[in-house]
Each structure stands twice: as structure tokens, then as C-alpha cells.
Amino acid sequence: MDLAIVLDGWSFDEEEEANNIRKIVGVDGRLKLQIRLRDGVIQWELEGRPDGKAPYGCESVLEYCLGLMEEHERRGGKAAFLLERQELLEQLESELLSYEKRRTALFRISDYARSLQDALHGLGIVELVRRYAGEGAAVFQFDRHRPRLTADRARSEALLMIQRMQLGRAVQALNDGIQAVEEFLAEYGLEDETGKSRERNMLIDLRRSLRERYNIPITDDELLQSLKTEQEVAIQQEDFEMAARLRDKINLLLAKLNGTP
Which of 15, 22, 26, 64 is the most buried (most CB within 10 A)? Predict the structure, then answer.
């Protein structure tokens, strides 16, 4: 089919990326996601794998591998044999990256439910390799994606909860994400890098933004801890105006907690 039919009336937007992403119904009746490029278009499935394929007769390589490990262990074998099948690791990595691309596009058009699903799929792949591939370079090759996947899961879930006006759950999702990123850094002995973590700081900034915009109720102790963490991030980012505003809020809250006028 001549792609001019698809692109007619849909110009590439240099300034707003969300305008280059749309959902359509395919000739098969299934929802598709189209990405407008400067010189063409990409089309993905919205459900299942982005490429619409069913590897090994399964919905995904992850699903196939989980079934494979389960069956192997049921028969009394050691499921760590995953490393012996390099092609599976390569297919898992390819699937991880394809879901990441779709996840990014879905987030940009505020489809947080589906971007959350894709983040969870990626985390499932990482956890599979961590569990069954033993130790070494193969594990870290996948595990290095964990902070980004964790952050994407947390912010997708938080914004989905905001859409549903479940404000407390939104804050909890961000808190869980921040903690998970910190645990990742501690696991690799990178505690000194915590303040510089882009993923952690992004979640902290989002938590502050949501709390201020929606006036999300939390206890004074929780608020004090959040304000102190946000001030540290603002200083790290050299946003001294924000740091000063947060300092004033901290002082006011401390005065309230201490019962001083």
C-alpha cells in the first residue's frame, strides 16, 4: 500500500512529540500504535509484542522462557541452563528494547495503563535473567536496565492513579520506586551515587509536583522527610531557587512540629 495514504494530513511535528504518535484500528480490527517519523512511519501492535509475532507459539519470549524454566524445574533439572542458550538471551534483549520503545511512546500520549504493562514486562525479563542466568556479564547486561524500568513503572503507575483520583496510591507508587532505585544502587555498592541518580531524582521531582498540584494529604513526618529529600535533589541540580523555597517550607513545618510560633 502506498504510505502516502497513511501520511496524508499527518505532518511530522518538530516541537511536540506527542503529535507524532497516534492509535488507529488496523484492517484486522486490532488497535495499532503509529509513530510518525520525519521521513515515514512505524506501526506497532498495542497488545502483546509490538511486532505482533508469537515466538515459539507464545505471546512473548518472556512467556516462553518462564514456561520453559517451570517445566525444567518440574522435572528436577536446574533451570540455570538459560545461559547455555545464547539465542534466548539475545531474543530476550531484543524484546526488552522493543517494549521499551513502545513504552516511551505510550507514556508520551498519556496511556499510562499500557506503559505500566510494558514496564512490568521489562522488569519480568530482568528478573528472569537475574534468577536463572547465574552471575556475570549476562546478568548485568540486563540488570543495568532495572533503574530505568523501575522509574518508568513508578511514574506510569502514579500518573495512572492520578487519572483515577487515587492520590494516596500515586504517592505510594513513587515512594516504592524511589526505594527500589536506592536498593539497586546499594546492591551494587553505589550508595555514594544515590544523590546523582537521574531515575531517583526524577521520581522525587514528580512526587513534589504531584503533591503540590493536588494537595495530596500525607502526615507531617512524611511531608518533612519528602521536603528534605526534595531539597537535596534541588541542590544537586543547582536549582537554588527551588532549594530556598523548600528550605522555607521545612522551617515552617519544623516550627509547627515543635510548637513554636
Answer: 64
Adjacency order of strands within the sheet including 21-25? 21-25, 31-37, 40-45
9: left (phi over 0), alpha (psi -120 to 50) or beta: left
Helical H segments across 133-239, by residue range: 137-143, 146-163, 167-187, 198-214, 220-236
Which residue spans within 1-145 are E strands per DSSP?
21-25, 31-37, 40-45
* Lookup: cell for 1: 500500500
Give the whole-angstrom CA distance, residue 131 versus residue 82.
Answer: 10
Say if strands 21-25 and 31-37 run parallel, antiparallel, or are unpaired: antiparallel
One-letter amino acid at 213 equals R
Give SS3 for 219: coil
For the entire predicted model, the pTM comes to 0.83
- The per-residue pLDDT for range 118-170, each reduced to its tens digit, is 999 999 999 998 887 766 677 888 999 999 999 999 999 999 999 998 988 99
Query: Which of 50, 48, 47 shows the shortest CA–CA distance to 35?
Result: 50
In Å, how far from its chain's centre is CA 27? Answer: 31
Task: Give the chain's largest Cα–Cα span.
Answer: 74
